Amino acid sequence: MPKAKGKTRKQKFGYNVNRKRLNRNARRRAAPRIECSHIRHAWDHAKSVRQNLAEMGLAVDPNKAVPVRKRKANAMEVDIEDRPQQLVRKPYVLNDLEEEASLPEKKDNTLSRDLIDYVRYMVENHGEDYKAMARDEKNYYQDTPKQIRSKINVYKRFYPAEWQAFIDSLQKSKMEVE
Predict the structure, then answer these.
(1) What angle do CA 22, 27, 30 make, to 5 degrees?
(2) Quick one: 119 exposed, middle or buried, by C-beta within 10 A (0-12, 13-18, 19+)?
């Protein structure tokens, strides 16, 4: 629905607004968000990227931080140690990053419950006979013998303790039948 005629106001220039501060704040808000919380909290917006990273003990360009020695330079015996080392004013950032990197990685890869049940059913009924597994009526997705074997191997790799317990229980039940 269109606006009624004469109901809009003319925009007037705001003389009392500090344009320099407005533009600076807009630039700062438009800057990309730093994902790493340790670096983000230690970041100083008044300084450049190079200055910020140097204060934290990090390198802007890894190629310049760890230079590759050329064969000609080795013959001349150039010392890299002569370069002045930069002062690290925020070593806690580097320590936090090293501590976080040393933590063990979480295993978040799991198999679906359906796949686990499928593998257990096939092994329980057919043992190691993959061709019989491929002909089984529960093979809904019409997996080939090699595909079934690979699914069983994935299950063995993901849950080795559970697989061993399952095989032991199968052997016990087989002995009880005999």
Answers:
(1) 125
(2) buried
Cα separation, 13 vs 161, in Å, equals 73
CA terminus-to-terminus distance, the chain: 85
Angstrom CA distances, 176 to 161, 170, 172, 173, stand at: 23, 10, 6, 5
Dump pLDDT digits (tens) for 95-129. 999 999 999 887 777 899 999 999 999 999 999 99
Integer CA distances (angstroms), 57 to 12, 35, 68, 102, 125, in order = 49, 18, 20, 18, 61
Detail the DSSP E strand segments found in 81-158.
Answer: none
The CA distances from residue 100 to 33, 35, 37, 108, 172, in Å, are 20, 14, 11, 18, 46
Here the tokens at position 23 are: 């533009």
What gap in Å lies between CA 110 and CA 132, rounded to an integer? Answer: 27
State the Cα–Cα distance between residues 22 and 47, nearest whole angstrom.
Answer: 19
Could you read off the pLDDT of 47-101 as tens digits, one per residue? 888 999 999 999 999 888 887 777 765 545 555 555 556 788 899 999 999 999 9
pLDDT of residue 160: 93
CA distances from 75 to 2, 66, 68, 95 (A): 81, 19, 14, 37
